[in-house]
Polysaccharide export outer membrane protein
Amino acid sequence: MITGKAAIFWYLSAFSVILFFAQGCSYKGRNAILKTPFDTDTVKNVYVVNDKTSTEGYYNKIQPEDELAISNLQDISLLVKGNSEANNQGNSSYTTFRVKANGSVLLPIIGDVKVSGLNRLEAAAEIQKAYETKELKKPLIDVRISNQYVLLMGDVGRQGKFVITREDYELIDLLGDAGGLLPTANKRMVKIFRGDRANPEIIIVNMEDYAFLKNNKLKLQSKDIIYVEPKRVVANSQNVQAYSTLLQVGLVAISTILLIINLSK
């Protein structure tokens, strides 16, 4: 029977091992990136931190240096002819034009058209109006902002950059395009980081409750970062092997010390 100093040493060692595991399995100690002080997996559907923007009627606006993919759906050659800088995208009927620093885009025949601050539908209307004033056959202009994207990371089918192709592109659409959530994903901890990287708006979503579908905050905006955390059990399991090895080494060391103590009596 172990008594005296040996017993104390044993109990302290056992307590240290238990504490070590407890810390490893704590929520704040989970194996995830982009952790914030506001993280919780008890959100009912959507929780917003540092709310800065209203998505009611929100559209991604065109800015200087944006790349616009523009097409005349009735006459493809209209936007290609005479424009050596246009980048014809393979078999696509769209041609890429870069918005200049002054917010205008230089187009064949009509020259500069101011588009900065407009959404893609407004820009298409302005460009169409400009072509109509040249007494051309009435065009049918479509505009896409080809460099506006969101970044998706975490436990999803496919990570990476996804271009925003329409105004009503929402979180559920993005996850569908990415192949959905993996079985290891924590459906209660899906985060969107929006706006200023130094002080972002943080949106935490619990996808287990269908009510999140009705929230306008989940309409994605250009440069949003979306992160799907792994489940805590899965994340902590990555450390189990290391903990197990450490525990075995610790138990061998403790047993050796106790044996030495008993033999020295």
